[in-house]
Amino acid sequence: MPYFKHQNANLYYEDHGQGKALLFLHGASLDMRQWNREVKHFSKSYRVITLDARGHGRSTLPPGDVSPDIFWQDAYALLKYLHIESAAVCGLSMGGHVALQLAAHAPKIVSSLILIGTPCTNRFNLYERICVPINRLSLKLMPMSWTAWCLGTFLGNTKETRAYIKKTVGSMDHSSFNRTWKAVTSMESRPLLSRIKCPTLILIGDRDSLTRHQQDFIRRAIPGSRLVTIKNAHHGTNLDNPKQVQKEINTHISSYI
Q1: pTM score over 0.90
Q2: What is the CATH number of the domain that holds 203?
């Protein structure tokens, strides 16, 4: 199985197809299987790369605190490891946040962005500033089975999506989940948005109550970006409505990749 090592973690990735590169980054507590349909669809025309973030899927997590910056640094290290000079990068939720940080810090390697249900901060308003610390504490106390049930029930719009989220979240180690979740909820990118100059597509599920409130702010902050609503989709947007998501991505990257 293909692994590479970066900052003391063994990171699992997959590489399918040929052509211009397209990197997919999954959401927090999920894994690269989130993109199975997209891999099958886009690898017919592009070189499609997926990565299990450290502490997720088959990637390891070294002991100690997890830096909020390590996720974009891992993605950058993977592209360099594969000798990819330029790639379109698509991410959902945490993966989208990682993608926009990658585009801000390493603009030459990102040809275009697709941000799905993506936050740019976890301190966007008073509600988030109060609730995120409470959420962190609650998740430390909850068994993973409860966390998996909650996330699967409330973040998926189809039976298949809910089942995948519950199974994947439930398979995570409790310590790894909480250490990575602390890092994810500490990511802050509002000052970086104006630095993103590549063509950017923003997708949001019409039922995504988790990140909807940040999308217009992100659209206005990233010059020339475009915001599209995905029908009948919650936060697991590409899982709920893969056909529309793939159509929007294909239209975007065919112009800019």
Answers
A1: yes
A2: 3.40.50.1820
